Amino acid sequence: MQSSTYTVKANAAFAFQRRTFSNLHNRSATTTVSSFTPLHLHCSASKAMGAKLARAENGIQTVMNLSSVKARSVRAQASSGGGDEEEAVPLRSESNSSGTVLPFVAVACLGAILFGYHLGVVNGALEYLAKDLGIADNTVLQGWIVSALLAGATVGSFTGGTLADKFGRTRTFQLDAIPLAIGAFLCATAQSVQTMIVGRLLAGIGIGISSAIVPLYISEISPTEIRGALGSVNQLFICIGILAALIAGLPLAANPLWWRTMFGVAVIPSVLLAIGMGFSPESPRWLVQQGKVSEAEKAIKTLYGKEKVVELVRDLSTSGQGASEPEAGWFDLFSSRYWKVVA
C-alpha cells in the first residue's frame, strides 16, 4: 500500500488526499502515508529549484569574475602601454610652444598699427594743418592731402607681394619701414602743401605694402592650432591704430601745432618695425621655396622648437613640390576666363 502510494503522481496524490480528508471515519495509515507524499514531492521540487538557482548564481558570479578580470587586464594594458601617453605629449607641448611665435607676431603687427594710424591721423589734424600751411579755404588741396595716402596705398598693395617673394618677408618689412618713416617725418616737418602730399604718398606706399605682408607673414609663422586666431589679429591692430590716432588728437584744442607731433610719432613704430624684423625669423615656407633648407631649419627651431624641424621641413618640401604651377601675369586677369569675375 505504501509502495503504491509513493509511486502515485503529484496530482493523484493531491486528489487522494482530498478524498481521505472528506471521509472522517476512514482514517488509516494510507491517509497518513498519502498525506506525506505531496510534502515529499514538494521538498524534491524545492531541492531541484534550489539547485537550479545555485547553478544560475554560480554562472552570474563567473561572468562577473570574467568581466572583472577583463577590466583589470585592460587597465593593466593601458597603464603598461605608455606609447599612447607619449604620443599625446607632443600635442600638449606643441600648444605650449605656440606662445614662442607671439613676440614675432607682435612685431609684424606694428605694420598693422601704422596702417590704422596713418588712416586716422589726418581726421583731427586736417583743420589745424590747413591753417598752418595756409590752405584753410582750399578744399581741393585738403582733399589731395587726404587722398594721397590712399593713392600710395594702392601702389604699395600691388608691389608688396612681389617684394615679399623676391626679398623675403622680414627683409620686405625692413624695406617697408623706409617709406613709412620718411613719409611720417616729411608730414611732421612740412612747410608746404607739396611736401605734405609727398609725405602722405610715401606713407601710403608703406601701409599698402604692410597690408600685403603683415597677414602673409603671420599666417606663415603661426602654428596650425592658433592660425585662425592670429589671422584676425591684423584687423584688430588696424582698429587699434585708428583709435590711437584719434586719442593722439585730443591735445589739438589746447595746442594747434600739436598736429606735427601727431604725424611725427609714427616714426617711432616704423623704426621699431625695422629693428624688430632684424631679430625675427624668416618664413620657413619661403626659405624652403628658395631652397634654403638649412636656414629654414633654424627658423623652425626658433619658432616651434627643435623637435618639429624634421617633420615641418618634410611637409613644406612636399607641399612645395606639389604646388608647382606656371607663372600667371596681370593680363591673365582680363582673359575671357576671368574678366567677368574681375569686373
TrEMBL record:
Q: Kindly give the membrane topology term recorded for this protein.
A: Multi-pass membrane protein
Gene Ontology MF terms in the entry: carbohydrate:proton symporter activity
GO CC annotation, single: membrane
- Work out whether the entry's keyword set contains Ribonucleoprotein: no
Keyword Membrane applies? yes
- In Pfam terms, one family for this protein is Sugar_tr
Question: What keyword terms does UniProt attach to this protein?
Answer: Membrane, Transmembrane, Transmembrane helix, Transport
Question: What is the annotated localization of this protein?
Answer: Membrane
Domain called Major facilitator superfamily (MFS) profile: residue spans: 104-343
Where does the chain cross the membrane?
101-121, 141-161, 197-218, 230-251, 257-279
Family note:
Belongs to the major facilitator superfamily. Sugar transporter (TC 2.A.1.1) family.
Q: What is this protein called?
A: Major facilitator superfamily (MFS) profile domain-containing protein
InterPro entries membership: MFS_dom, MFS_sugar_transport-like, MFS_Sugar_Transporters, MFS_trans_sf, Sugar/inositol_transpt, Sugar_transporter_CS
